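Thread: quick sanity check before group meeting

JM: Hey all, I'm pulling together slides for Thursday and realized we never actually wrote out the predicted structure for the chain we discussed last week. Dropping the sequence here so it's in one place. If anyone has concerns about the input, flag it before I start.
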Amino acid sequence: MTYEVTHRTSYVYESVVSASYGVVYLLPRDTAAQRVLDVRVGITPEPDSYSERTDFFGNRVANFSVLAAHTELTVTTTSVVDVAVRLLPAFGTGPSWESAVALVRESDDPDVIDARQFLLESPSAPTSPAVHAFAAESFTADRHLIDVLGDLTARIFGGFQYKSGVTDLDTTPDELLQLRKGVCQDFAHFQVACLRSFGIPARYVSGYLETLPPPGKERLIGADVSHAWVSAYLPTLGWVDLDPTNNVFVGERHICTAWGRDYADVSPLRGVIFTEAKTNTMTVSVDVTTVP
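JM (edit): ok, ran it. Output follows.
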């Protein structure tokens, strides 16, 4: 599938902003499953500086500054991305989770060594006894890791309600366990913490879902907004992506922009402004359409 994604973020400030400095994580990256055909970034007012770079995790990042006085700021990214069908191992195949953990711990393969950094706790996805206990119901003895991943994804989907406005950026996995309500970001952080607590490298992935569902399929939660999911490392296969918000293994309807340890590494748009304003209004719109 080929998609065009338009992501527009607009800020309106209550008083004049003398300078804005922004960091943009909205430029899709090339992966084994997708190829970026085109990316355009538009900033209003016209930026005084603009540059792009690659961060530590290989994500494409844009930096800009607007030094003219302004009361509104709009950042629009338009991307064209070709997404391939992902081939997944069948359930009941591959290594057990215990074997996978041992391989991750002991292997000197460069890819495995690189994956180990995603075993470490991160601020938004800390492990805890409660998180470990939840995950333990999926990590039964000698179970194939691919089966563990599918079961854990299904249990998060079935055990938590998708509801916006209940959580915020500071909500922890332990707090989510108490609330049993949240959004894709919360579910992704929770699953990342579950996997890391058992020694499986896991990273947080930011991106989008196809806006319109295929004929006869239900519309997926998270369409028309930024979405988040999880990528788990299988030593014999590589990275496998899971979407606990929708109880699916990630396929050609998911478009990746960036990945990191958690949301803080890949927040779509952040920066610093200089102003006396106490409040601002932010609106975000996302449109994902297929390209013939």
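AS: nice. The longest helix spans residues 145-159. The mean pLDDT is 94.
JM: adding both to the slides.
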